[in-house]
Structures are given as C-alpha cells and as structure tokens.
Amino acid sequence: MVKVCIIGLGRTGKEVVKVLLESKDIKIVSAVCSPGSDKINRDLGEIIGEDYLGINIVSSDEIKRVCAETTPDVAVDFSNSEAALKNAIILSKMKINIVIGTTGFNKSDVENLYKVTQKNNNAIVYAPNITLGVNVLLLLTNIASNILNDYDFHISEVHHKNKMDSPSGTSFKIATEIQKGVISSGKDKPEVTIAAARVGGVVGSHKVMLVGEYDKLEITHESFSRKAFALGALKAVKFINKKVGYYEMGDVLELSSVLNQYMEEREVI
Asked: What pTM was computed for the model?
C-alpha cells in the first residue's frame, strides 16, 4: 500500500484525489492546500463531492507537521511553482518522494529540484507534461524531427484563460524534443517557434507542425478532461515509490527504450 499526501486542491488536484481513491493499492493519508484557502479544516471528501473520508485539509504552512504525523510515502503536488519548490525542499529532507505536476518552473528551478534529490537521496518525478498522450506526442515529435530534419518547426498551444505560464512547460519540452531529434540526425539545432493562446475553459491542446516546401506533418494532442492528468499522476505515484533519483514522465512510461529501439533499427537500415 502506497501512502500519499495530496498538495494542491484546485480542479486538477481534485481529479487526482478521485483517481487515487479508486486505486486499491494507494491510500490518501493527508491533504494540503494554500494558506488562506477556504478548504482548510474541511474534510477532503466534502471538497471532492464524495462521502466523509476522515482526512482534514491543512494549510501548506503545516506541511512538515502533517507529513510527520501521517508518514506518506509519496506526495503529489499540483499547487504552483513557487510553493512546489518550497514543498520539495521540506519533503525531500523527510525522505518523502514527490510527484510534481505543477507548471511554471524556470531552468534554475528544475536544476534545484535535481539538486534536492541528490542532496537528500530521495526521488522526484518532475512532470508538467503528465498526461500519457502528451508524452507519446513528445516521442513521436522526436522521431519525426529526426527524419524531417530540414523542415521548419512550429508549436501552437491553447489552454484555459486562468493558466498563468505562457507558453506552457509542455511546449518548451516539445521544442526541446524537436531540437534533440534534429541534432541526433547530424544537423544543427533548429529554431522552433511557439504560439500560445489562453481562452475560455480549454483544458489543454498542443499541435506540432513540421513544414517542408511541399508538404506538412501535424502531431496533435488534446486533453478533454483533467482526468487525463490524474491518470498520469497515478502512474507516476506507483513508479516513484521506493525509488531514488530525478525522473520525468518519459522515465515513468519507459519511452527512452522505444526511442533507442527506433535509433538502432534506423542504423541497421
């Protein structure tokens, strides 16, 4: 049984709670929200519209105390980038492994997450692109850009109007995969343009365009429900339990083995 602490109870966090509750080998033992939230001191079941769960929601100011009392194996953080980094430092010192689905980290923040795992000998899955479909898109994009290495590359994304970071961390990750694919083919690092829109209640959509002189390839992913994020979080929780080190969703889904197989087969051809 994997004991879990949930951090961040916005729309995505609530979906994560519902999915984890359905898993027989996971037990939610504590829940944390932002200071000043009206969710503090309410039962987690009430917040997600379910029966009483006996889990009292506390402020993130009390995260060290509540985790010492409930001893989770893994914490799942869908708060915000500033809070998640602060939480990661506290939880890592307590030897609690962490799944971070929060976006908005800069390069320095990500480097700090890596250093935290090395210093405290625990594990973190950093997964701003936590949906299973987006990670397959990343793999396909890498392969396609390796083959179509002289094409032009453009990413367009659409998210709900309340999403703060623009472009998203996922778009930057897609751009990195394009560049890795082209460089691995022997060509120079390409320019990748990104267009981002924040409108309405769109959960998330990413389109990768590889455009040549005479044709175009598009790879698209769209999330219809935040349950897609929750299912990714479930996989990450099961993966990270009892591990040590820094990981991303590609590691959770073992996508590198698929990519390596493709590269080996291409060399044979």
From this structure: 0.85
